[in-house]
Amino acid sequence: MQPYLRVEHHLLRDGTDFSSVHEKMIYLILCSYAGQDGLAFPSHQTLADAVPCGKTTVKTCLQTLVEKGWIEKAERFDRHGGQTSNGYRICADNPVGSRQQGGQTTPAGVADRAPEEKGVKKQILKKESPSPTDQGIDGIIRSFETEIGRITPSIRNQLGQLFDETSPPVIHHAIEQAAAANVRNWNYVKAIITKLKQQNLLTPEQINRHEAERRNKPVRRQTNRSASGKLPDWVERERWQQQQAEREQKRRFEQAVPDQTELNQLLAALI
Question: Start and end of every DnaB/C C-terminal domain (predicted)?
Fold first, then answer.
């Protein structure tokens, strides 16, 4: 196994080749395990620990990688003919696979530059300011698959419904917030959209003004006191119980320690 993995720049920078960051990471980890024949067979748990993610996510990503032609499933059998865990072969015509098998080198100090690199830079700039064509439902779906992950028919239907009930800026904002928080989950995105809808924040100006006010709002320290300044009942009750326990402990201690008369009698008996 090589001590490093050569990956072309555009494969890392382009967000259209893979449905999610988990899918990209699993593909690169498989490449790092592949031998000269392109075959890799790390377990689902090994992949899940390396990403990190759950084994269900690993299985889903492996299936989509097979469907897209990035990898091929290789069934394995023991010497008795029984099937064991599957292996995965990196397809030779993919960027990492071809570079690993070909053993090509790059002169020192010269970085690999893919022809699509300029196009990738334009895509990154577009992402910060969506064009009018990205404001439709297709643009939102592309943004979701790029930033959050694979979109299911159920999520697609819910996105379409929220698209009709709110506005494209609301959904784009929710996707960006989830990606920034590294919570790539549909329920999290949906919760942000629902909150913006309830607050009637439907335009970019309204959302930006609300975010600015929220950032500038002073943080209020939380206390256990109620509005009247009185501590809650459970606090008063625990305090009283603690005081009672301390009194009882003091009483038992005083009973166990002899007074001066008892001390004199003990000293006289010893003498």
Answer: 142-211
The Cβ of residue 158 has, within 10 Å, a number of other Cβ atoms equal to: 15
Residue-number span of the structural domain to which 98 is assigned: 9-102
Whether the CB-CB separation of 170 and 45 falls below 8 Å is answered with: no
Does a structural domain hold residue 264? no
42-76 pLDDT tens trace: 888 889 999 988 888 899 999 999 988 899 988 77
φ/ψ bin of 257: left (φ > 0), alpha (ψ from -120 to 50), beta (otherwise):
beta
Find out whether 51 and 26 touch, Cβ atoms under 8 Å.
yes
Q: What does pTM read for this prediction? A: 0.37
Q: What is the domain-level CATH number for residue 28?
A: 1.10.10.10
Work out how many domains the chain is built from and give that number.
2
The last residue of a domain, from among 216, 242, 257? 216
Interaxial angle between packed helices 153-165 and 168-180, expressed in degrees from 0 to 180 and rounded to the nearest 10: 130
Which residues in the chain belong to E strands, given as ranges?
Answer: 39-40, 71-74, 87-90
Cβ atoms of 208 and 196 within 8 Å: the answer is no
Is the same domain home to 134 and 75?
no
Residues 6+ apart with CB under 8 A from 251: none
d(C-alpha 67, C-alpha 118), whole Å: 28
